[in-house]
Amino acid sequence: MNGTKKEIKMGREAILQSIKKNKPEALPMPIIDESAFYEDIDLLNAFKSNIALVGGTIKEIDVAQIDNELKTIYPKANHIVSATSKSTLGTIPFSKETDPHLFKDIDLAIVEGEIGVSENGAVWVSNTNSLVRALPFITNDLVIILNKSKICIHMLHAYDLIKDRDRDFGVFISGPSKTADIEQCLVVGAHGAMSLTVLLI
Amino acid sequence: MIICSVYYIILQLFKNKQERTGHLRINNRVISYLACKKAINNNKRMKVGLFIPCYINQLYPQVGIATLELLEKLGVDVYYPKNQTCCGQPLGNSGYEEDSKGACRLFVENFKSYDYIVGPSGSCIYHVKKHFDILEQTQDVINVRNNAYELCEFIVKILGRTDLGASFPHKVGLHKSCHGLRGLKLGSCSEVMGDHYSTEEDLLNNVKGLELMSLNRKDECCGFGGTFSVFEEAISTKMGKDRINDHIDSNVEVITGADHSCLMHLEGLINRNKQPLKVMHIAEILNSQTQV
Amino acid sequence: MNHAKKAEIFNKDEAKVNWHDKALWYVREKRDNSAHKVQGWEYLRELGSAIKANVLSNLDEYLIQFETNAQKNGIKVHWASNAEEHNNIINSILEKHNAKKVVKSKSMLTEECHLNPFLEKKGIEVIDTDLGERIVQLAKEPPSHIVLPAIHKKKEEVDVLFQEHLGTKPSQGNPEYLVSEARKHLRNKFLNADVAITGVNFAPADTGGVVVCTNEGNADMGVHLAKVHIACMGIEKIIPKEKHLGVFLRLLARSATGQPITTYSSHFNKPDEGKEMHIVIVDNGRTEQLGREDFRASLHCIRCGACMNTCPIYRRSGGHSYDYAIPGPIGSILSPGKDLKKHSSLPFASTLCGSCSNVCPVKINIHEQLYKWRQVIVKEQKQPIVKKSVLKIAGVVLSKPKLYGFAGKSARFVLKHAPRFMIYNKLNAWGKARDLPEVKNENFDEWYKKRNKNG
Domain 4Fe-4S ferredoxin-type: where (chain C) (predicted)? Predict the structure, then answer.
């Protein structure tokens, strides 16, 4: 074990030495002029159309109507995990200690998203929202509830908004999982969620 | 640019001949003897030096003639330095940049005293501008690199002309050579975001009777690529075939372009496959007076 | 076998070449459309390039900063000078956990290090979980593209492969059916994996976390279900700040597939409670490349594959013709730095059209580097004698006007008067599919001389 450790250290020193020897003179960090990306667009509409573009569905809805709406969209869902107080449809009690393997057969997961990005329809979901990291991926269908005041224009702005978070795990989700690995044919539903619905409140 | 393919063949033929007969010897003694006389054109009245690339000089004199006539028609004093050979591109692109220095220096010697150097071949001009960095950057070298212009660019940018009074009543497909397009930036590229522009289109759109046909792939490489055409023969000819089919599918009658090396490659395929297309350098079209 | 030879074989099936070309051109068009929608796209590329240049010039400091921050968050950081060290580090982690089943999401680095065969020899099951990678893994082939690993496979071939390995029913290559079967097959692998290995797309130094981008969700399925996560990254994956993801994530997916962003952009900053997270930082020739001034910028690469999709040669020769983990234009400037002799044909597998440099989201001057590698190769590698002597002689001829005049005249004479069999034979690659130009009676020089006499 000691031998391995020593070797690893050598790797580190060797790499850093080699970089010092080979790197060019210091080059400045560019200053990002965000005004170059400015567009006078309707954030909400752009967000909606981009969600559709990436294969998701989106609906504006009153908080009180969430449960009814979800019952209509997912009438057959039995095994439901709700990580939000905004829905009472959860059928499987869980906590952040729950073994994610137990979620292998769930039909529906309901989580809250923190921010939406209009340029690409992505929604930021952290483990504060999902409690169990695997939840938004392992579920068959995924619902993300998002406050429509939390939509920003592009990714630079998005990172500004999440910069003070507790860095644990977080993910931008843009649409349902998909693949085009067979002859470039787009198939929705790969390893992650088969569908994504964003409910804007 | 062709030199690497045609010269390759030609010199191989020489080589074979030499082996058989012992007649042709290209040895250092002969070379130094021939190099004794170095003619440099220093005439101060000269304004534009006409650069006729080696392969055009040897194989497509009509392109050189059209270029010269066109420039003269446009009221330019054109001079043709007689000792010109090649810009060195075929060597550089093959990795033999070091061996091209002699050709590059000769180019500078030939053209250093002109205000502008104009040639009907985008890739050669690009080579002069881009790759003459291998020479010591004397004022002459810098001047030559700065003042070298591809023909269309010279006409549009320097002379400020787009309507040259030409007429050519045919359906024309424009092949945008990569070195002209992406190297000299004669036009906007389909993969770069920004406004559309094209030096060659500006000129062709002003030719009476000419109908510029829209292609499916507007600026894909034809697959010539100098020695690439020989050493990657399969891909090179496939690329050329695909370009030609795009033109045929777009009802083109005449393929044109500002770089005859691409056109030579396409013409070679067209002739072999007996396809219903004609190939002409853009200078020939711009110099054309066909009645509408 | 060099690129030209392999490409020639690939071109024996012209219909397949057409299909391959069209599939990738379609991706290139999607990329164009997607980029057109972004205000300030070209500026975004400039930023991407400038940030990466800054990274390379401070790489040692950023790596130390990254390591410190990662360790603060409970991540174990390892350093590997080469592929062997990388593979050994991973093996030692697996041994420690007595791990026998590994799921892996896409990582070109592990491909470069030949990790799979290394672990398989030790009796470990390594499953590639990206669908394309799983397809080529089942076919026992390397990926032919870095983003679309199975782009060379027709759906009917996938169908047969799945019947054989996953016991699927014949479906005439129905993509929906095949994907759903792959989902079932791989879900089982995810649920039973001991360790998940992922690549890394970006590693911000200021947070010490890693970002992994997938469309399928395979990286997350693997990581969140296994007890141990090992993320493998080349040293050049570092970016200075997390906020710079705001630049790179805007560029990456649009350049790669034309999507505005990948479905999942996952930020792993801390191991989950009760689990372990390891990061292996790998050199494997990168610091050497860093020292090559002309080729340094190749380390900007964010592995989007746009240069492959736009490359007219790649599209018509297929990724396997390059015989390197990373094919296409970017592979052709990276591989000579690894093994100049083995990969010496790759910088010549280009017409230097420059489209690769134009699509590159971090503005690597790929075609200029191809040109420069050619000069290096001619200097340092033994060249075919015929090519060499022809070009050397041409160099002399072109510098001597009189000799040139003579050679030109003779050449035209030969072309005009030699019998056809002398010109069109197997020595003449030009003439295999193309005619040579018709030779005129006089060249331009002669015409000009005559005109001046007459005038």
Answer: 291-312
Q: Residues 390-419, chain C: which have Cβ within 8 Å of B?
A: 390-404, 406-408, 410-412, 414-415, 418
Question: What DSSP state is assigned to residue A82?
Answer: E
B positions 26-55 inside 8 Å of C (CB): 26, 30-31, 34-35, 37, 39, 52, 54
| A38 to C296: CB separation less than 8 angstroms, yes or no | no
How many residues are recorded in chain B?
A: 292
Cβ neighbours of C393 in B, within 8 Å: 11, 26
Query: From CA C142, how far away is CA C87, in angstroms rounded?
Result: 18
pLDDT tens figures, B148-184: 999 999 999 999 999 999 999 999 999 999 999 999 9
| Number of structural domains in chain B | 2
Three-class SS state of C11: coil
Query: Strands across the sheet with B78-79, in order?
Result: B78-79, B48-50, B116-119, B148-150
Task: Give dist(CA C425, CA B185) in Å, integer.
Answer: 39
Cβ of C179 within 8 Å of Cβ of A187? The answer is yes
Q: How many CB atoms lie within 10 A of CB A137?
A: 30
Separation CA C47–CA C247 (nearest Å): 7
Confidence of residue C455 (pLDDT cuts 50, 70, 90): low
Residue A92 corresponds to which tokens in the numbers above? 């499987």
Q: Which chains touch B (3 or more CB pairs under 8 A)?
A: C
Please give the residue range of the domain that contains residue C417: 385-454
> What pTM was computed for the model?
0.92
Residues B281, B248 contacting (CB under 8 angstroms): no
Is B14 close to C396, i.e. CB distance below 8 A? Answer: no
Q: CA end-to-end span of chain A, whole Å?
A: 55
Cα A178 to Cα C259: distance, rounded to the nearest angstrom: 11
Q: What is the CATH number of domain A43-200?
A: 3.40.50.10420
- Does B124 fall in a domain? yes
List the beta bridge partners of residue A200. Answer: A60, A146
Phi and psi dihedrals of A172, rounded to 5?
-85, 120
Other Cβ atoms less than 10 A from the Cβ of C148: the count is 24
Same domain, B271 and B177: yes
Crossing angle between the packed helical segments C401-417 and B8-21, to the nearest 10 degrees: 80
* Smallest CA–CA distance from B30 into chain C, residue: C403
Domain-embedded: residue B66: yes
Q: Out of A115-129, B20-34, C245-259, C266-280, which region has the weakest mean confidence (pLDDT)?
A: B20-34
CB within 8 Å of A47: residues ≥ 6 apart? A58, A116, A117, A118, A121, A151
Q: Which C positions 380-439 lie with beta carbon below 8 A of chain A?
A: none
Write out the DSSP string of C19-76. HHHHHHHHHHHHHHHHHHTSTTHHHHHHHHHHHHHHHHHTHHHHHHHHHHHHHHTT-E
- Write the DSSP symbol of residue A104: T
* Dist. CA C308–CA C143, nearest whole Å: 13
- Chain C residues near residue A8 by CB distance under 8 angstroms: 78-80, 85, 89
Gap from B271 CA to chain C (nearest CA, Å): 6
Residue B16 resides in a domain: yes
Say how many C-beta atoms besides its own lie within 10 A of residue B8's C-beta.
26
* Residue at a domain's end among C236, C263, C284: C284
Q: Are residues C33 and C71 in the same domain?
A: no
**Whole-angstrom Cα distance, residue A191 to residue C330?**
29
Q: How far apart are CA B212 and CA B198, in angstroms?
A: 12
> Nearest C-alpha of chain C: how many angstroms from B112?
16
Structure tokens, C4: 């030209």
Instruction: Give A110 to chain C, closest Cα distance, Å.
Output: 17
CA distance B202 to chain C (A): 23
**Of B172, C84, B195, C240, nearest to A32 (Cα)?**
C240
**Residue pLDDT, tens place only, B52-73:** 999 999 999 999 999 999 999 9
> To probe the interface with C, which of B3, B58, B101, B123 has the most C CB atoms within 10 Å?
B58
